[in-house]
What does this fold into?
Amino acid sequence: MKKKYKCEIDCAACAQKVEDAVKKIDGVNDVRVNFMMQKFTLDADDARYDDILQQCIKEGKKIEPDFKVEI
It folds into this structure.
């Protein structure tokens, strides 16, 4: 399942770091964090999508404490 969300992230470097970290989460097929558009796009396993999304947000906050995703 692939969904797009509005997000808050402070810089392009942080967006890249979050993207790299989220790609390592089991069940994530692809992810894009667009700093300029403030968009978070997640393609993940359908059966566990909600759990994976929460893991992604948690991982993002470790890198960028102000990282937010509007669900």
